Write the C-alpha cells for this entry.
Amino acid sequence: MSRLTLSELAQRIDGDVVRGGLDLVLEGIAALDEAGPSDISFLGNEKYRQQFLETKAGAVIVPRGLTEGPGGVALVAAENPSFAFGIVVKSFTEGLARRFVPGVHEKACVDPTAQLDPEKVRVHAGAVVMAGAVIGDGSEIGPNAVIGEGVVMGRDCLIHANVSIRERCLLGDRVILQPGAVIGSDGFGYETVKGRHIKIDQIGIVELQDDVEIGANTTIDRARFGRTVIGTGSKIDNLVQLGHNVQVGPHNIIVSQSGIAGSSKTGSHVVVAAQVGMVGHIKVGDRAVLTARTGVTQSLEGDKTYGGNPAHGYIEEQRLRAALRKTPELLKRVKKLEEQ
C-alpha cells in the first residue's frame, strides 16, 4: 500500500484542499463509517451525509462547494468525488493490480490455424482457442475459457475464466468479459409446426464494440441472421439476458437481472435498471432511463425517465403508488358510508 500526503492527494485528483494540513499523511482507504484517522474516504451521495458527519476519517473527498464537515477531518473538494476516489484507490493498490505476463500455458489448447503472438498475448491453463480465431495483442484468455472458431478479438481484451465466445463473433479493443459470460449462444427461435416446436437456425453473430464490459453469467444470443450488437462503451451487469438481433446503443448501462427480447433497440446513453423487461421489436430513445422492474411493452421516447408496468412516466408512476398506499383507508371509509 502507498502513502500520500494531503497535498499529493489533491494533485492526483485535481482537487482543492478545503481544510487540513498539506503534509497530513494518509495510509489507507475506507468507507465513511469504517475509516480511521489515517484513512481517506469520500462523500459521493447525499444519503451518506450522516455517516460523513460522524466519520473518523483523516480526510474526505467532497463535492465542490461543500466547506463544512466533522471536526478534525481534512476536506478535499473534487468535481466528482466517486471518480476521484477511484483514482485514489488505484494509487493505494498499485502493487495489487493485475500484471500482464505474455505466454501460452502448456495446458492450453490453441489450434495451429489460430492467429496470435505468444509473446504479446496470454492464454491460461485449460483455455481453448479454436481454428481460425484471431487474438489481438495485449489480450488475455482466462482459465477454461473457450474462444470459438473464427472469433476475432481486438487488442487488450480481458477474457476471464469459463467464458464462452462462440464461432465468428467479433470483439473490439479493450473488451472485458467477466467469468461465465456466454457470447453468441443460439437465439431462442422456434416455429410451431403441427404441434411441435421446430428449431430455427441461428446463423448470425454477436459484435461487441470497443470498451464494452459484460458481467458474470450474462448471456448474449447470436442473431438469427446479421448481428446482435453491443455499442461502444456499454457496460452490462451480471445475470443479464439479451436476445437475438438486439441492438444496444453506445454507452448504455444495463443492470442485473434485466432482459431484452429479440430485435429490440436502445439508443445512446440509455440506463436500464435492475429487473427491467423489454418485449421484442421495440425501440428506446437516447438517454432514456428505465427504473427498476419497469415493463416495456412499446417503444419509448428518449430523454425521459420511466417506471411501472407497462412503462409510463416515472412521476406518474410515483403518484399511482402513493395513491395505492391509501387504498386500505379509502376502503374503510367506503364501508362506513355503505353502512350509513
